[in-house]
């Protein structure tokens, strides 16, 4: 079958769909380390994992509204300055299972672990485009290019067997501060097949869907990419839109991720002994907006206590805002005293003072994307 050459995977992953392979780590494994190990990093695919086995002949084609179309080999890309960017990648469908409990939604069911934090190594797209004659901070080229499209080699049924693709605005692609990478390493190792070998895009602060894996070509376009995953998926609709009245063209493709957090040391319903309980989890926002505060409530949101936050392993930065890594999550921790059945609520606040919405009902949407509602877990007393 087309799925007979899939790579080996960690048996501890929770498999949400087998073909295409979609899996996430357990909650407790996810927050054990600040940098998510590659084997535990969630895997989100829309088709079989392609095999790119002849590296010397591998190249990325640069086409579209360019003066001179060109191919760049892995070697060409490795010759550019290498950057290591710690960035959290999160699927727009993270926490979809909880949203589908309100009313059914379409899409792969995910718990809270369709997210991971990795150190991505590669060339900055802004440097690559400069090599092709497009200056830094361009919003339009002389030939009218305004969007940069990434096309993969994989085959997705949503694209009628064609490749996965997405685009970002040229102004973001050519902005060195946006840290958009063509990555060939993940956590200091060669990128593996599941995560896009030999080359993938990483668009920090943006939903995972725009970080195209197994890059085949990069095209300069006047309009944004017209692919399925840009135009007919990964858009945010209000709760009133259903499959009968949906007008896909009425909304723009989702780009930045909103502020998000989840408790990972506990399941949604957790038996605990009376006494001290440790609440651990992650918080992250999109667009380079760092996490400003992490709040925990034991009374449904009437009163709150602040959790402590860590970013670099072992390094508290709660009083040192300059140490924050703007594309990366923070891990948080609070210890509470439990003497009765208690609902624990977590919500994060980002650097723009954006706050997670209180209820999932208010943000319910038919595709089940962007469930960033307050995360709630119920602690039941046991002995
Ligand atoms: N790129 C290709 N070529 N094919 C895909 O199916 N899935 C996207 C994105 N890039 C996808 C892709 C989605 S929806 C997400 S969330 C991320 O890759 C997941 O990246 P990961 O599997 O490395 O965690
Ligand atoms: Mo995704």
Walkthrough of the structure:
This protein is mainly beta. The protein contains six helices and 22 strands. It has helices at residues 27-30, 74-79, 96-100, 125-131, 170-173, 228-231; strands spanning 14-17, 22-24, 43-44, 59-64, 70-73, 83-90, 115-124, 147-152, 165-169, 181-186, 189-190, 200-202, 215-221, 260-263, 269-272, 275-284, 291-297, 305-306, 308-310, 330-338, 342-350, 375-381. A five-stranded mixed β-sheet has the order 5-4-13-8-9. Strands 6, 7, 10, 11 and 12 form a five-stranded antiparallel β-sheet that branches. A five-stranded mixed β-sheet has the order 15-22-21-17-18, with no helix packed on it. The longest helix is centred in the middle third of the chain and has 7 residues, at 125-131. The radius of gyration is 21 Å and the shape is globular. The termini are far apart. Residues 314-323 have low confidence and may be disordered. The protein binds ligand MTE and molybdenum atom.
Fold topology:
Elements lengths: L13 E4 L4 E3 L2 H4 L12 E2 L14 E6 L5 E4 H6 L3 E8 L5 H5 L14 E10 H7 L15 E6 L12 E5 H4 L7 E6 L2 E2 L9 E3 L12 E7 L6 H4 L28 E4 L5 E4 L2 E10 L6 E7 L7 E2 L1 E3 L19 E9 L3 E9 L24 E7 L2
Parallel strand pairs: 4-13, 15-22
Antiparallel strand pairs: 1-2, 2-3, 4-5, 6-7, 7-10, 8-9, 8-13, 10-11, 10-12, 14-16, 16-20, 17-18, 17-21, 19-20, 21-22
Ligand MTE binds next to β3.
